[in-house]
Amino acid sequence: MSTKSSKKILSDRNKASEIVAGWKKAGNKVVFTNGCFDLIHAGHVEYLEKASEKGDKLIIGLNSDSSVRNIKGKERPIVNQYARAKVLAALGFVDMVVFFEEDTPLELIMSLKPTTLIKGADYNISNIVGADFVIENGGKVETIELVEGFSTTNIIEKIKRL
Ligand SMILES: Nc1ncnc2c1ncn2[C@@H]1O[C@H](COP(=O)(O)OP(=O)(O)OP(=O)(O)O)[C@@H](O)[C@H]1O
Ligand SMILES: O=P(O)(O)O[C@@H]1O[C@H]([C@H](O)CO)[C@@H](O)[C@H](O)[C@@H]1O
Predict the structure, then answer these.
(1) What's the pLDDT tens digit per position in 127-148?
(2) Nearest C-alpha to atom 11 of ligand 1 is from which residue?
(3) Residue to mutate (ligand 1; options 69, 81, 94, 151; most atoms within 8 A of CB)
(4) Following DSSP, what letter does each residue of 91-135 receive, concatenated?
(5) Which reaction does it catalyse (predicted)?
(6) Which ligand is nearest to the CA of 133?
(7) CATH code (residue 51)
(8) Which residues line ligand 2 (CB under 6 A)?
(9) Domain containing 126: what range?
């Protein structure tokens, strides 16, 4: 039996696009962010909650395991995509989690056409994938300040030193 949170997790990009189009037609501002979210930490949660406050619906584009391996190295991810998605989908302010296999979320962003694209302030707007597309389609691109002291890499390094 699927749970309330598991219903938020989608692999089917067309289905996700149909749902987002319905949200937008109903007048919702749809916020999109993306990431690997491996070993989810308090910085991620603070960031996602702030992102959710930028609109009515929050979608997370989640890098698949093969995508994470390509961009962060063969040791990653520590946690598989389904488990990462499960934790994210359990957050009350998250409305959808969609996997993407590519190295970047550009094709997913072009399919979903979000109102607002958000990344952490470790990126500047000029190098955020999808920013040009969202702005050209009348949307907004914003960054959110990082919470000091939290990163998946730091957590891994700390565990290695035990
Ligand atoms: N400490 C933090 N505070 C707020 N946002 C964060 C923090 N760390 C990461 N983010 C944001 O969360 C999203 C996912 O980032 P990511 O999964 O790369 O986390 P990470 O902890 O930086 O991982 P890694 O150390 O492997 O790079 C990105 O948009 C990033 O800007
Ligand atoms: O978890 P990360 O490393 O912050 O997420 C990456 O973000 C990249 C970003 O969107 C580039 O502007 C993206 O290309 C990559 O696929 C990861 O999601």
Answers:
(1) 999 999 999 999 999 999 999 9
(2) 120
(3) 151
(4) STT--EEEEE-SSSSHHHHHHH--SEEEEETTS-GGG-TTHHHHH
(5) D-glycero-beta-D-manno-heptose 1-phosphate + ATP + H(+) = ADP-D-glycero-beta-D-manno-heptose + diphosphate
(6) 2
(7) 3.40.50.620
(8) 34-36, 63, 71, 103-105, 119, 123, 127-129
(9) 6-160
